[in-house]
Amino acid sequence: MSSLKLANLWRVISDVDLERIRASARTPFELLVVAEDVSIGERVRAGLGAVPGGSVHPYVVVVDPDTVRQRPTTPLVVVLATGTAELSVRMKAVDEHCIRSHWPRLTLVVGSETPDAAARRVAEQARVAALDVMNAPRALLLAVIAQVEGDARLAIAAALPVFRQVVAEAIVDETAKANASFAVTTGLAETIPVLTAPLNLGDMIVLTKNQLIMGYKIALAAGRNDSPRSMMTEMLGVIGGGFLFRQVARQLVGLIPVAGLVPKVAIAYAGTYAMGRGLTAWALGGAEVTAESLSRYTAEGLDQGRQLAQQLIGQVTSGVPSPARS
Description:
The structure is a single chain. By secondary structure, the chain is an alpha/beta fold. The protein has two domains: about 25-150, Response regulator (Rossmann fold, 3-Layer(aba) Sandwich); about 160-320, no CATH class. The chain contains 13 helices and five strands. It has a five-stranded parallel β-sheet with strand order 2-1-3-4-5, with helices on both faces. Strand 1 (about 30-35), helix 3 (about 40-50) and strand 2 form a beta-alpha-beta unit. The chain is globular and about 55 Å long.
């Protein structure tokens, strides 16, 4: 698989339901903001739901605490927005209703970043304290995404642009870790199919497939809604029919002769990480994937990959299960 021609690409991912993933990215949802103070609720709504043109996406809804029980819809996430560190009686009642209804929720304290305001209370899933929510602080975005499982995150990112960067980063992180875990369990030497080191073809296909699906999900999270074949074709053009793979390979090939499993796992992580970062920059900002940017991403990935390798190998040798493979 020295080059990724379109026909080869489709064979690699032939058993993946790309249309299902695409449908997940277009699934309607409700991000429910509950606030006693209308001004706080509207600021949170504007910060999370801003779309080009100055409007706010209708998927982000603000309601009064007393109306939550009567709502006919099931929210994807509930944000309990308050101006005080302690929830009022009405807001606590909403929190208890969320618990009984199994609704993911988080507490957002607006106007304060003190340690007390940010300290999670008993039974809270998550808590964020922020002075300004109009600019959608990263901690708030991460807290919302943390309450959402699987491809539902794609729907949030596709509809709400402020979430796109953190969702793309989560996709890259999860895929890179999955490939690193796979490398631990198979002893695979690397993740880039154009290297000259002897490889197991089946392992190459698994890792390459993970990388390709990662890129497809990043494009969906960026708001793209083209057909799977069209997006994959464009993505193939971005990586230059193997250009990206070759550039990452040049950064990693020097590690191949090194004995031991740590460098092998680090390479599996770094190759996936570099590809993910490059495709994120392209999908979200239209940036060109260059040798210089890939060199930088690969260096970052190797540092992180070595640390993860030590952790994963330690888990394996101590009998602790490693993270699930993608």
